[in-house]
Amino acid sequence: MSEVKTIETVNMKRRQVLAGATGVVGAIGATFAAVPFVGSWQPSEKAKAAGAPVDADISAMQPGQMMTLSWRGKPVWVVRRTPDMLERLSALDEFLRDPLSNDSLQPDYCKNPMRAINAEYLVVVGICTHLGCAPLYRPAVNSPDMAANWRGGFFCPCHGSSFDLAGRVFRSVPAPTNLEIPPHRFLSETRIRIGEDTQEGGQA
């Protein structure tokens, strides 16, 4: 009899251990199964990056150069304008559809003739406001591949829209509005952040 009791006791203990182990494994399995489900409630890293601000070092840019960044899947151009480029802008108003940018998209702190926080640097979305094509950067006056009297700016070869070096659209072209100016601010004299508004409407 004592031998039978020993066997039964061992079997009971074994069943308890197996039952406990099964419960633990089941709980662990449920936890692992829940992780992807809970994780799906959170935005992906790609989604976070798509709307996150983008920083750029502009210290190496030479006058006249253009840098291209990507923000929210859009190309954003940073152009370091020369004094000559800035001087040319003031003589173009009569040829522009919206010289004061009243009907165009830009932050209030860039609603000025230069469409900029710092006149030297233009920050603009590089997408034509007609059908979303990508204009070409043609800063030189009378560029050989442009029409006569070209004063420098951006030209969309798809449908012929043209913009000056402040991203303002010329009259008699398909594009209805000036190029978009994204929210941005200067972190320092050599670093710029795209996708975040400036503080107090001036250089941060």
| Rg of Cα set | 30 Å
CATH topology of the largest domain: Rieske Iron-sulfur Protein
The number of helical elements comes to 3
Oligomerization category of the chains in this entry: single chain
The helicity comes to: 25-40%
Distance from first to last alpha carbon: 89 Å
Shape: globular
Major sheet details: 3 strands, antiparallel
Mean pLDDT reading: 78
The CATH superfamily of the largest domain is Rieske [2Fe-2S] iron-sulphur domain
Unreliable stretches (pLDDT < 50, length at least 5) are: 1-15, 21-44, 200-204
Sheet-strand content, in percent, reads 15-25%
H/E element sequence: HHEEEHEEEEEE
Label the structural class.
Answer: alpha+beta
Number of domains: 2
Strand order of the largest sheet: 1-9-8
Written account of the structure:
The chain is an alpha+beta fold and 204 residues long. The chain folds into 2 domains: 1-42; 48-194, Rieske Iron-sulfur Protein (3-layer Sandwich), CATH 2.102.10. The protein contains 3 helices and 9 strands. The strands form 3 sheets. Strands 1-9-8 form a 3-stranded antiparallel β-sheet, with no helix packed on it. A hairpin with a 4-residue loop joins β8 and β9 (191-194).
